[in-house]
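Q: Sequence in, structure out?
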Amino acid sequence: MFLAEHTQENVLYLKFSGITRLHHSTIEAVKEEVVLHMKNCCKTIFIDLANIHFIDAKSFEDLASLVMAVKEEGISLTLCNVSDETFDLISLMQLGDVLVSSGHPYEVVIQASAN
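A: Exactly. Output:
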């Protein structure tokens, strides 16, 4: 489903494997992993959405909940390798400050709240 790894201290990198659509159960598993790492002083999270082309409505609610939780904890969250379809949905939902790199794929950066 997804792979979690620490790339360096206080950084979590999540990548999905073998799926192209995010559903509620997948986001719930991601939320559990993120909460676990938040307790271990993780300050930066990257979620790689390469090959993800669809996120259902309930998953967007869950993703918005995750965004709020990490912001409140002072954690920066970046959605990497966002497809055109997913980028359009994230923009429509206004989940974060959208930064477009030079070309595709997109990155969506959600800044941590100032503490």
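Confidence is low (pLDDT under 50) at residues 98-104.
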